[in-house]
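Q: Fold this one first, please.
A: Sequence and structure below.
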Amino acid sequence: MKLKRTRRGDPIMPSTKRAAAALLLIAALGAGLGGCVSIGAKPPGTFLSLTSEAAPAPGTGSSGTLAEATVVLEPGAAAAVSVLRIPVQIDAANVAYIKGAQWVERPSRAFQHLLADTLRARGKGLVVETDRNTTGTRIGGQLQAMGFDAQTRSAVVRFDAMKWLPGGRIETRRFESIVAGASPEPAAIGPALNRAANKVAGEIADWVG
């Protein structure tokens, strides 16, 4: 094969040889970086979600105005549970995260859905999830914990609830559920947290009245 020449007489490498040279260069760069570069993040092995143990039956429904409804707000969340990863409380000052697992959505959002489903199943009338202002009953608060406590080896859900009632009255209460004997493994922590979250949601539903 003859090489083409530029105006200055320098040979130009054919396209097949240029492609081979480029591949060799990429391989050399990869070897030099020692495998430190990867394309895309490795997905976690397990995705967790909350499932209501008292979901309304298919076909059931309710109607009314927003002022008559019980409005479930998305709660705020402490820093450790404002991410998709599952926190492990090592001690009072240190937090780690469970490897290989994460939530499918924000824990605060997942708890909002769970609480709304629990209220509907308990026959609380029209229950909606919205951030719109209303003169009816509103339920919100702060999700303080939804993870694993390493010192007690327990799954913990802690929620500081706030209830706004018609007429401007406000009530608050802390709810907590602890499932002992849990494991920080993804296959075990998910069901334990689901049990704890359902217990808290059920107690809030009783409190709503």
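Q: Good. Now the second chain.
A: Here it is, same layout.
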Amino acid sequence: MSEEIDWAVRANAKPKGKRPQYFDDPALDRMLSILMAVAGEVSVLRERLDTVERLLERKGTISRADIDAYAPDRDAGFERGAATREYIARILRGVHQDLEALKESEPPLEDVSRQLRDL
């Protein structure tokens, strides 16, 4: 079996266990799953493009083997990590804002604990 077919088979394999459900509508869960898969692919593409840019800057010309063999140095790894964190934060900004709003609307845990203790 070729490597390409192996990846196709693995990508379409049924996962073990129950699919997580976050929303009442299963279609929304599927859309979230698709969106996060695409976001992951874009992240990989961003790193590969970073590799191409760094190699071109360093060597002026590159081959596919150069790209595949590239290992970022410490500074490049740090920059990539920061860029990935920023990218994920932008994608999940709405979720983060909703969580912050929920925290603001809920009483602090200490207040809830005190109320339960006083019952």
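Q: Anything worth noting on the second one?
A: Residues 21-118 form one domain.
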